[in-house]
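Renewal narrative, Specific Aim 1. Our central claim is that a sequence can be written position by position from structural information alone. The example that follows is taken directly from our test logs and has not been curated for this report. It begins with the structure tokens describing the chain, in the order in which they were read.
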């Protein structure tokens, strides 16, 4: 009997979990899909490369959508049990909230393992693979990322403009470059033609200019220097571009595995900002999966509160909790980046706060204390569990 009830509750959670996970992941992917579709339609990138790029981006989204989907699924699943008075019948059968939590904990553990595998293995691999794939696209066609008659400032210290890009995309014509990497002597480079030469080992693309000139003015605007050239190389670092200018060695922190993060943190030659970034990423790899257990803990007592609009109420409460959680998380990470909090406190603070609130609400619900009365001074149901066997029979006689 108990196994039957456990499977029934797991099914009530699993169905909305899968639906919400699909919807949330699809919504997050839509922003990226609209960008990559331009590569396929206007730049001629193969559909297989687009599909691979989307596949590599999936883990970074799943790390967030799995915990959120679990929380909302628990609120909807348990809310339906309570709204249809099935939870009342289970209580009358001698099943307590502690026993009801067993299938919910099992679902949370499954979500925890899924998220843990995603953050530890899939996210670093996906981020690195997507960056490599983008580099391959840029290597194959010069027009990838560089648009005709559009100023491009994706490269640090370089503003690039190409007047014309042929359809085959083998070179650029009418190239204008503003190079401010040397702040004391910014220069402007004009060239008739340019070619992209790649180096896959260092993730660097060199823009080889042909038949042009450089124009340099000193900081005081007192001296002007012009140099004509037949060939001139300008280095474009794609690795720093794809990783958000936060490159550490050859990988960003989001592309490192757990062992790589631990080994890099032991490097005393890194700056304090780099160490804080690595510490945040290291703690997030475990703190994000643990949020599944925290969401299950706080979702159970809130989900069993009887209400007619089960789904809308579950979505509303779930979205409110998720918003509060990620606001705390963003605030904590910002304080860590500025050095005001340690990485452990700043990263784990949302889990601690939600876990403490979940424990309090869980024991209040287990003792049948009114959560709404505790916060609002009112009760959703004056006697939600006051029904007895005699009362039910008397109600049945009266209705007949």
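The sequence written for that structure reads:
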């Amino acid at each position: 009997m108990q196994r039957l009830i456990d499977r029934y509750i797991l099914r009530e959670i699993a169905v909305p979990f899968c639906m919400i996970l699909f919807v949330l992941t699809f919504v997050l992917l839509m922003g990226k899909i609209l960008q990559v579709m331009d590569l396929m339609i206007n730049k001629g990138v193969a559909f297989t490369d687009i599909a691979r790029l989307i596949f590599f981006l999936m883990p970074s989204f799943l790390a967030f959508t799995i915990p959120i989907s679990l929380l909302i699924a628990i609120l909807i699943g348990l809310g339906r049990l309570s709204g249809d008075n099935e939870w009342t019948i289970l209580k009358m059968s001698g099943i307590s909230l502690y026993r009801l939590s067993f299938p919910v904990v099992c679902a949370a553990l499954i979500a925890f393992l899924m998220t843990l595998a995603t953050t530890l293995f899939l996210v670093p691999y996906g981020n690195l693979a997507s960056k490599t794939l983008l580099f391959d696209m840029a290597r194959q066609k010069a027009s990838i990322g560089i648009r005709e008659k559009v100023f491009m400032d994706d490269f640090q210290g370089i503003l690039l403009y190409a007047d014309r890009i042929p359809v085959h995309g083998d070179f650029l014509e009418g190239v204008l470059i503003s190079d401010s990497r040397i702040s004391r002597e910014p220069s402007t480079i004009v060239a008739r033609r340019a070619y992209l030469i790649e180096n896959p080992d260092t993730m660097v693309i060199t823009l080889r200019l042909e038949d042009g000139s450089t124009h340099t003015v000193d900081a005081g605007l007192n001296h002007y220097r012009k140099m004509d050239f037949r060939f001139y190389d300008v280095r474009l670092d794609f690795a720093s571009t794809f990783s958000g200018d936060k490159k550490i060695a050859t990988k960003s922190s989001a592309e490192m595995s757990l062992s790589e993060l631990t080994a890099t943190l032991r490097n005393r030659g890194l700056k304090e900002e780099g160490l804080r970034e690595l510490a945040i990423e290291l703690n997030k790899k475990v703190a994000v999966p643990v949020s599944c257990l925290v969401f299950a803990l706080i979702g159970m007592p809130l989900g069993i509160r009887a209400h007619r609009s089960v789904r809308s109420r579950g979505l509303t409460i779930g979205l409110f909790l998720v918003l509060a959680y990620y606001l705390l998380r963003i605030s904590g990470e910002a304080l860590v980046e500025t050095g005001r909090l340690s990485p452990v406190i700043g990263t784990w603070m949302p889990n601690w706060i939600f876990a403490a609130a979940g424990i309090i609400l869980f024991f209040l619900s287990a003792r049948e204390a009114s959560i709404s009365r505790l916060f609002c001074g009112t009760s959703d149901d004056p006697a939600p569990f006051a029904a007895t066997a005699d009362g039910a029979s008397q109600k049945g006689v009266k209705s007949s």
